[in-house]
Amino acid sequence: MRTFIAIELGNEVKNVLAAAQEQVAALCRKGNYTPKENFHLTLHFLGEVTTEDVEYLQQAMMETAGMSYPFSLRLDRIGFFPRGREGILWAGVEKSDALFRLFRNLETCLGRQGFGREKKGLRPHITLGREVEPYRHFSDVQKKVSLEAAEIPVTSISLMESVRMGRKLIYRPLVVQRLKDKRVSR
Known about the structure:
single chain, alpha+beta, globular
């Protein structure tokens, strides 16, 4: 099964992202846009794992959650990872020490369970579309699209499975692990 560990997003944040996505689509020639229900922030991409691996992943997530307090993130800006005339459209979040601490703890705990480190480190973003091609330039889109500074409460981490249902890709949680307590930090 194809998996990743992520921060799931609430409906309010998904609505803000979908509104920004609509604005972008009007300024672009084409794009393969992420369905609203699939919006998330990836912490660690695992790829293919076995059913037996899930138990070890759950253990690493429990350890991580036991060291991590809930915190909040805030949507920040629209960006692109260019690939020629096209690119990956994403929404970024404001810099957060709490997010990077969560990521480092997760990497350590996954390592103890025999899983490798995230190759690219953490570049926190929410993918809104792939193969997005603006009519003019990516910078034009960034200037014209407003992203509401919505707050993302982070109270848990989720082991997600990526499943193809016909032509549609669905992300479903296999394990959801709540963070340590209700104290909120930034």
